Every structure is written in C-alpha cells, then in structure tokens.
What does this fold into?
Amino acid sequence: MKFLLPILALIALSTLTRSAEVTPLFSSLTAGQALPKEFHVINLPKIAQNSFSLATDDGKTVLRVDSDNSAGSIDIPLTASRLDNAPGAGSTVLEWRWKVSRVLEKADMEDKSGDDHAARVYVFFDVPLKSLSFVERSKLQLARMLMGAEVPTAALCYVWDNRHRIGYTAWSPYTHRLRKIVLQSGPAHVAQWMTETRDVAADFRDAFGFDAPAVTSVAVGNDTDNTDERVTTWFGDISFRK
It folds into this structure.
C-alpha cells in the first residue's frame, strides 16, 4: 500500500468542489467567526491537525493557519463564477497574499523526510485519465475505488521555501503528478505580506508539457509534521482574474 500514499495525500488535499453559490472571500468575513461550511478543512490520516481560524491583520480579515508538528490545508471552493475565469475556461491568472512567521530550518522539498513548507498553495487540474501511463492510471483507479471519491490527476504547489532559490521547481518526492514551484525563499520577507500573481496555465505547461485542463480546486495550508517545527501562516483573498 505504500505506493498509494502520494495519491491518498492528493485525495486529502482536494475535494474538487464546484459550488454554484457565491463563496465568500476571507476579507468579507468576521475575525473570530467559524469558517463557513464552504471552506473544507482537509487533514491527512494519522497526522496531527493544523489549526485554522479567521483573524484580523493589517485591517482585514485573513485566514490564519498554525502548524506545530502537524499538517493540513483548507479547500477554497471554486464557484461557478470563479471557474469561468479558471484555466480551460478563460483567465489563467491566480492572485493571493501570504505571510509567514518564520521559515522552516530543517525542511528539504526534495526529500521525503523534510517535505515541509511554511506555506503552500495547491492548484488541482482535471487531466484525462487516458493521457496517463498504465501504471499511473492503475494507481488512480485503485485509489478512487478505495476512497469512493474523485482524485486530482495533476497539481501545482506554490511554496514558501527555506533553501532553494525563487523560481526553482521540482517534482514532489512522493509523486510526479505534483510539481512544486518556489515563490518565496529564506527569511528576507518573513512577517511581511507578499502578493503573488501566477499564470497557472503557463506553469502547468512548463511542468507537464501540454496545455492546462480545467482547474478543479485550490487549497492553502502549511505542514511541519516531518521536521517537527512550528510556523504560523496567514493567507489573504485568493482569486482568479482576467
């Protein structure tokens, strides 16, 4: 069953939500209130859970994620209106703000034992199964049978790293269906809000070698379960735009 771990992790990080309702942005919510049901907290089996809350920072409500030898993400549902602006339907530009309390000293994005990040933003894509190799199709089909849920077939993961240069990319040490891209690195901008703008269709094409299909889900979080460290991460509003 070890060969299924990367796929089960992708299941846990994506609910493939396609809600027709308007999903509120963090800035439209009230600090201290419970997260709306549209935002799904995603945890990994047998790993301590991160803590998620709405907090006020710089005069706006943002998502706060506390990680202490733990892991977890929160799924940002892509509403019908947002999907209209997602790759495969229109605009490909994803924007967000993030801030971290520190970088992780012992992390190493290319090693399973150090695969932690102070901040992560996942973008999941609906790649047709028929385009995958026989081995990849078999793993995904078995995972879907076991979990009774759809599984993302490809993903990008934008990270706040500790040792690699900005712009560095690498496959996940667990699976070549997940490409990681370093957007911030080291302590230079710790405790500062940083704004990111990414053409996710271009990033997908660079990673996988063909045009991006539709985006199915976006998730944000952090993890420290491999390095046994602590970090607090804040996320501002996340959206596609034209």
Remarks:
- The CA atoms of residues 18 and 78 lie 6 Å apart.
- The domain at 2-241 is CATH 2.60.120 (Jelly Rolls).
- The two ends are 43 Å apart (CA to CA).
- Helices lie at 5-12, 80-84, 134-147, 200-208.
